[in-house]
Specification:
- By secondary structure, the chain is an alpha+beta fold.
- The chain has one domain: Roll (Pnp Oxidase, Chain A), CATH 2.30.110.10.
- The chain is built from 4 helices and 8 strands.
- Strands 1, 2, 3, 4, 5, 6, 7 and 8 form an 8-stranded antiparallel sheet that branches.
- The longest helix is centred in the N-terminal third of the chain and has 15 residues.
- The radius of gyration is 18 Å and the shape is globular.
- The structure holds flavin mononucleotide.
- Flavin mononucleotide binds next to strand 2, strand 3 and helix 2.
- This is Pyridoxamine 5'-phosphate oxidase Alr4036 family FMN-binding domain-containing protein.
């Protein structure tokens, strides 16, 4: 029940904070190979079906993808300025490309791809991110798949299997911790001091 509660609250908060062209961003922290943290902005792509799994999209060739394959532990932090709320989502991430056996994830990946502007879709057929270019950009003359085509191979959906949520409402001075020690267990809710 309380899992449903934080999910509903996040969606409601996102709809109330419809600035930034209506795209909510979150800071996604991963663990580097040397144990140090890495953090970057990613767009919140909604929930995986009716679950509490959180979706984001990225390039399978990026450092963050390599970090997730080494250690799946992540934390995503979303601040919603109009309502002064923060959600810290802690859990384990997995990446899903064309070969994912999950039908719904395949559909969600295609839908996310279709929603990308052309200039972003182009990146996924371009040189690998974060590398010093070995050849000029003109060398990358790969056709860019259209919104209705199969997504580029490097385009992957990240799925965060959320295991705890630290919710802070600055206006109300309220903090709640939602936890689920195991995916099969029920969510529990603890009110804590802000
Ligand atoms: C507002 C904003 C939104 C972004 N959204 C995404 C995103 O949804 N997915 C993504 O892979 N990178 C996104 N980026 C770029 C990342 O923040 C990051 O620079 C890039 O993915 C490289 O990260 P990495 O080297 O840690 O893999 C976004 C950047 C900004 C500033």
């Amino acid at each position: 029940m309380s899992g449903v509660q934080w999910r509903g609250r996040l969606l409601e908060s996102v709809s109330k904070n419809n600035n930034y062209d209506k795209i909510p961003y979150m800071q996604l922290a991963t663990v580097r190979g040397d144990g140090r943290p890495a953090n970057r902005s990613v767009a919140f792509q909604g929930f995986h079906g009716g679950t509490t799994g959180v979706l984001f999209q990225t390039d399978s060739r990026s450092p963050k993808a390599a970090e997730i394959s080494l250690s799946s532990w992540v934390e995503a932090c979303m601040y919603l300025p109009d309502t002064q709320e923060q959600f810290r989502l802690h859990g384990q991430a997995s990446l899903h490309g064309a070969d994912t056996p999950n039908d719904l994830l395949r559909q969600e990946r295609c839908r996310a791809w279709a929603g990308l502007p052309h200039e972003i879709r182009e990146w996924f057929s371009g040189p690998p991110p974060s590398q010093i270019p070995k050849s000029p950009p003109e060398a990358f003359h790969h056709a860019v798949p259209g919104p209705k085509d199969s997504p580029a191979d490097s385009f992957v959906l990240g799925l965060i299997d959320v295991m705890s949520v630290d919710y802070l409402d600055l206006q109300q001075g309220r903090r709640q911790l939602f936890t689920r020690p195991h995916p099969d267990e029920r969510w529990s809710l603890t009110e804590t001091c802000a």
